[in-house]
Amino acid sequence: MDYFYAPGRNHLFVPGPVNIPEPVIRAMNRNNEDYRSPAIPAMTKTLLEDVKKIFKTTTGTPFMIPTTGTGAWESALTNTLSPGDRIVSFLIGQFSLLWIDQQQRLKFNVDVVESEWGRGANLDVLAEKLAADRTHTIKAICIVHNETATGVTNNLATVRKLLDHYGHPALLLVDGVSSICALDFRMDEWGVDVALTGSQKALSLPTGIGIVCASPKALEATKTAKSVRVFFDWNDYLKFYKLGTFWPYTPSIQLLYGLRAALDLIFEEGLDNIIERHSRLGKATRLAVEAWGLKNCTQKEEWFSDTVTAVLVPPYIDSSEIVKRGWKRYNLSLGLGLNKVAGKVFRIGHLGNLNELQLLGCLAGVEMILKDVGYPVKLGSGVAAASAYLQNNIPMIPSRI
Amino acid sequence: MDYFYAPGRNHLFVPGPVNIPEPVIRAMNRNNEDYRSPAIPAMTKTLLEDVKKIFKTTTGTPFMIPTTGTGAWESALTNTLSPGDRIVSFLIGQFSLLWIDQQQRLKFNVDVVESEWGRGANLDVLAEKLAADRTHTIKAICIVHNETATGVTNNLATVRKLLDHYGHPALLLVDGVSSICALDFRMDEWGVDVALTGSQKALSLPTGIGIVCASPKALEATKTAKSVRVFFDWNDYLKFYKLGTFWPYTPSIQLLYGLRAALDLIFEEGLDNIIERHSRLGKATRLAVEAWGLKNCTQKEEWFSDTVTAVLVPPYIDSSEIVKRGWKRYNLSLGLGLNKVAGKVFRIGHLGNLNELQLLGCLAGVEMILKDVGYPVKLGSGVAAASAYLQNNIPMIPSRI
Amino acid sequence: MDYFYAPGRNHLFVPGPVNIPEPVIRAMNRNNEDYRSPAIPAMTKTLLEDVKKIFKTTTGTPFMIPTTGTGAWESALTNTLSPGDRIVSFLIGQFSLLWIDQQQRLKFNVDVVESEWGRGANLDVLAEKLAADRTHTIKAICIVHNETATGVTNNLATVRKLLDHYGHPALLLVDGVSSICALDFRMDEWGVDVALTGSQKALSLPTGIGIVCASPKALEATKTAKSVRVFFDWNDYLKFYKLGTFWPYTPSIQLLYGLRAALDLIFEEGLDNIIERHSRLGKATRLAVEAWGLKNCTQKEEWFSDTVTAVLVPPYIDSSEIVKRGWKRYNLSLGLGLNKVAGKVFRIGHLGNLNELQLLGCLAGVEMILKDVGYPVKLGSGVAAASAYLQNNIPMIPSRI
Amino acid sequence: MDYFYAPGRNHLFVPGPVNIPEPVIRAMNRNNEDYRSPAIPAMTKTLLEDVKKIFKTTTGTPFMIPTTGTGAWESALTNTLSPGDRIVSFLIGQFSLLWIDQQQRLKFNVDVVESEWGRGANLDVLAEKLAADRTHTIKAICIVHNETATGVTNNLATVRKLLDHYGHPALLLVDGVSSICALDFRMDEWGVDVALTGSQKALSLPTGIGIVCASPKALEATKTAKSVRVFFDWNDYLKFYKLGTFWPYTPSIQLLYGLRAALDLIFEEGLDNIIERHSRLGKATRLAVEAWGLKNCTQKEEWFSDTVTAVLVPPYIDSSEIVKRGWKRYNLSLGLGLNKVAGKVFRIGHLGNLNELQLLGCLAGVEMILKDVGYPVKLGSGVAAASAYLQNNIPMIPSRI
Lengths: 401, 401, 401, 401
Known about the structure:
The structure is a homotetramer.
Chain A: E1 11-12, H1 22-27, H2 39-55, E2 61-65, H3 69-78, E3 86-91, H4 94-105, E4 109-114, H5 123-132, E5 138-144, E6 146-147, E7 152-153, H6 156-165, E8 171-175, E9 194-198, E10 210-214, H7 216-221, H8 234-243, H9 253-269, H10 271-291, E11 295-296, E12 308-312, H11 319-329, E13 332-333, E14 345-349, H12 356-372, H13 381-393
Parallel strand pairs in A: 1-13, 3-4, 3-5, 5-8, 8-9
Antiparallel strand pairs in A: 2-10, 6-7, 9-10, 11-12, 12-14
Helix pairs in contact in A: 2-9, 5-6, 10-13, 12-13
């Protein structure tokens, strides 16, 4: 029935796709229906309103595209830019690398600002470039808010400050795939022009919706953007928004109902509480890593990610063995090290609909794996460090007080 | 809980998204999992093998892209063609119109061959064009196998014959969205270079996978195709096929399991039996339409579609009233008339995982609606005509004999 | 995956278990939980309040026992009566027969009042017995409201009138298995002392909850009832009701959530609208039977059941062949003739969460089967007769107007 | 949507109902069907064969009764015994107490052999009674294999040895509710005459099937057993077994499919591997308890249960506060102390479809709770002790090697 069955729950700690809450699984457990009936537009309308809240925008226009994060990237770029446009993009890990690859293949002229993997975007270089760019040849700044490969969170507020400081009109395009709805993200306040995420990340849904949110300035940019686009064209959506039927082509009925349920749960918990919960989970994970005597791939505290922790292993250990062993012995799914950090790091995803005891079970599993592969960990040490913090900080469950 | 609840089952007779069988709904009822574990590649491998069977190809290469039919179109075009390329495309209804619109926006040079809506592709014009094109400036023929808006099935075998007759090397790109896995479709035999469908049609899944199958010649064409593409680029898939991990970006775990279950059901029923079943449902529907004294939008028998019937209503009736009434009074979902035939036709979709008694319930509903809107139908007449045919032709259910 | 797979929906027209609405299937799609947490009691409290509404009682006490209708029968009897107690019970078909068998095996002294199968309870005999019973030796009247085997609905109001007329204190115990929540049933108004139903009938849930409702007089009777009982003992429930934990032993978490969803749907549609819908479906079915030239097993209109129709077939046809053929050729599930009417009747169940087009599909199927087995039916005739009535009587769906 | 929502998974560690594996939840996600069609009997036949394997019997006859464990008890007693029959029954905790209460209310003459709660059945007293009972007035020995309230497992092999030693013909009736399919249980080898369990325990299903298995001797006893029974009467089942339709009344379609899936998973894992897994989980839990400096309610190692651990708390702590806090702060469901040990113990259930990392998450949670309520636990100590054992003993997952 299943491929490679194992008893008990799979402990899913890759940084996406993440655990789907039961109420959302339930909401999606349904037959197809006619998306041109009054029901789907009525629901879509509520989704478009509510999805803006997780971007913290009131002025943005959201698009819920039947695609993945990669498609959402493409949509962000092709709707606002023209081939040959100069953009500044930060290479700090595998996902920013892939986005830059896409930018280049889409024929943009990319100034790649590279950092060592484990470090955040080099904003000093950005400042220099902005300062030098008196004629505003830079059309967009592309930045990954949270680099999933290295567990690095970039400081978007500073990016905005720099743009404002230099009075630079470049668009600010943000990949929020592993941040939005989990980390502090403020589209309007930070003047983000295009922000995007994928349904299978902090929203805790299956893969299948790339959610892109465009500022008025970004929408304005579509009028002159010459990049060829059809499937990803926002204008087709806007046309159907006006008609009140909302969909230029067939959406997934199931994902829409799932998104409705997911948003309901998010608002029930409270977006700020969710961000706080991710902060707790991130902190607890880092305390465990420290207790194990291992290093975080992320080099400075200012970049620590609360949705994923990349753990460096000693040179005599192949980190991919850790991931394999998790799956083969403990039914625990951890993230591989990718590209430059392959074999060197394994990753613990701690985003989405997840609670503290789930994380502690994972940490206990990682300890046993570390011992399996020959690292002299003190069993229980990471759990103890994480628990000590959590026991002081977990709030009572509001609905149950 | 639901939007606009009504007791009993919704009778879903739009030509997609169609009814999902219970075993497929069950198969998708699951949490996310790590798509980089050995499980998903192991399953994906079986899917790629098995999905070729519904295209009737052994030489084609399939791509299961997380997108819709519109995305599958774009993938077919951009992977094989370059901007400016001359293509011949047939406009016979709303969906061929939309594809042509996409072709033009993607900067191809489109020879539009238009037919009256209700008629098939004008293959005489194709013959002329091929005959005249001694220098092979035509790079591709784009044709919708089954035009969902008018219920017209084109004759692909003839298209192939013409290409062969003139020794013309143009690629043959086929939209099989409402045909593949329901109508007779033979990718290899008919020399189709790119064929495509969407998961929510005859495969009876939710929306979310655009399945594209490319011939060796089409794969060869990717090497020179200059259309800009990233998300839809087959080469990214091919790279991961070689790695054995299969996915350049995150697929929907749920849809993959759903596709596995759907293919299992398809092979259990037998592809030829499925085509035969659609033939029965199509014929029964047309007999009912005839008994009601109404006309089929499709003008000739050679074009009759076995997956959707577009029914012309008398001028004094607005066909959209029929669709509205179905939803508001009978919990019956019918297809609207689109664009040129808006108000003039309503559509009965009879594709996917559907049986005869479901169709007869629908036909009984249509009769009552027709009476509701003032058409002097004899109640029971269509059901009688359809039943008379079906009672002679339905086979015993093989598993139950 | 499934046993004996067939394409499309199974058309389920046995008089129970009946079709479960999708929202209820969804509500039950969940893991177990601790039934001693605050959640289950909180939900149970709402269920106990709301379930009374479908019995039309404000004074009754409901018990939701993890059992079937047979267990609910046993609970009704053993909680209110003592071995040797004289009861009057009406034998009018297979289910009343089975209840009487139970009554006898539980050591009650049963006055069996038999009617020809197809006729209602002989209330003249009841009147005689009550008149003669000056010393009130009769402790209870047991009556099946709707005999599922023959499609006969008994007149409970008259039973109450007779008891009142003779000032007789006998308890009135009613099997409402195939009536409550589908037919007009008024526990308080008709002075019913114990009424019961099963979750898989008009409530449209899976089998597994026997719902029993006891009047204050019935509760009083428990104090002197000497029948041995433990699992079915109401007092154990009452003890836990007082404690506020509600459950003397483990309930099915899934069925409780399902019942919550089912009740929500019932109240959304409105109990009176549900009864009206069953009346339409019953009437339409009988019109079809008449159009086919067949006889209803129910001999008089006053006993016609709106939840199940037992159809008499001509002597040269074996009705079980009709049922078999439905399953083997049309994926249609009809009810067999039972016991005395085996081979002579087949049954169309039309209860639960069902709409008119579903029924018309079934009727079209029955017509084809009748032809299959050699009965000279005019195809379409039954559907025409039913449609003519329905088209005049189906209301607009309130939520969609 | 849910009552008292909390983010992430509920950690379900009550000793039943237990976690349902996803494939089983999926299998139950379905509409009703006709239980008189060929499908349900065909499946039932496989269930009756396969369910015997988890009792380790080839000669027993199983009954899958739509009821709970309490109903299964009643079925075991009433089918084999007559009112007034002398039985020996061991009182060692809340569930044996409840069974004895039932035995007395069913009018048996019960020799209650009481032990201090936390100790096993006093088999010395049994030996005395058997020795003294030359005339075989004792008709049955009733024993709970695993007392869920105190975490005590009785030695059934010794009970059988005593019966054999004294050549005593008393029936041996065993409550295996929290043991069968989790602990070593051997119906045939130990000469158990009636064994029973409930679907919501080690089988990891919802509540709703009481599975009772009867030896040939137990079946023989039904012929003379005078206890009144109808719903629970095995003879009604046997009658329908002979007919090949299997069900005297309506079963739950969903639970049957669920049981089919559960058995498939059990056989895939292997019953002996399952018992081994429970042994690991039990041992790990006890090591944690020891590391916390707390006492096991179970007084001797020979009685330690591998499915549930009852933990004694110091007198200054109310154990029910621990359970409350688990639910209110950590989304962790622990078992309350019941009756005599109320306030004194809390219970960790570790049975059913559960793996080691789930347990470690629970143990980490218990540690934080202990600290919350003022017990001076060293955080991480229990997890460390459990992990040290587990890391040495968890096998590779066979399907993934």
